Amino acid sequence: MATDLSKIQTLLVDADLNTRRILRAMLARMGMDKVTDHANLAEAAGSPATIDLVILDADQAEGAALRWIHAIRHGLTTLNPFVGAIVMTWNPTQQMMIRFAGSGADDILVKPYSPKQVQDRLVNLIENRKKFVVTSDYIGPDRRRSPREGQVVQLIDVPNPLRLKCTGEFDRVNIHELTAHAAQVIDSEKVIRHGFQVAFLVEFALPGLSVHPPEKRAMDHALRAAHVLEDLERRLPPGELRLEATTHIRRMENLLGILKTRGTLPADEVEALRREAHALMGLTSRVDDPEKRMNEVLAAVVGYRTRLDQLTLAKTAEAAASAGGAGA
Q: DSSP letters of 17-83?
């Protein structure tokens, strides 16, 4: 391997001591001796921002490692949000792969693995790391094989600590400035995505909130907006946008609080929730035309409803097939 891995600081988390010993030995043979290992995430939680690479067992604690990577990417831990992240698993089920894809991790290793497989993952992460993308609930490598037609997603260059360390560039750049700049770009993109998501959740919930009693699915989706609003506010830049957006956020939080407490909203307050959601999206969107913004939200709602209906039909068909097989 032409690159020098000796300066990389690695955090290894796996409940199995023997696995940690074997992997440490593999990494040491590649020149990586700056390895801190822990048996669980509780021990690793306070790891310093100087860590360049995390390698985590994804099988323990029902996906806690993948949730931790998601938190890292969203700036909710002590670690650099752009740290290299590789997860390990004995059982790459479809559910596991879906969780992996949504976590923001860079790569996955299926146990048992060879030294060459570990090395290949590291080389790929150093030399060919994918640019990041941002949605309302995701920050991480762009995994799309082909973007959806008409969809514009910004590709974001983020600092790669592994590459900087391996090429000797780390000491010639200001990693804090690079990280802060990338985080600012991501915050700006998150604000836009969150603004859209809030309007989408409210529009999706609207029909179900307008009946008595409100539909549970509509309630669940509407109340999800509260978490989106919280993260949106956290990422708003100081200035006029923050002042205006916060006004709409507070009004929506108040209405959602009433909905959660009472379990219903009067028709005028449902309409007020919708109005505030679209006003907030108007402030945060790149699209100036209100009609175009509305059409984009409604198209997303229709597409989502279609997918939910398809899932329901598939589950019904599967249940019918299972019942038929049991009867035979």
A: HHHHHHHHHHHHHTT--EEEEESSHHHHTT--TT--EEEEESSGGGGHHHHHHHHHHTT-SSS-TT-
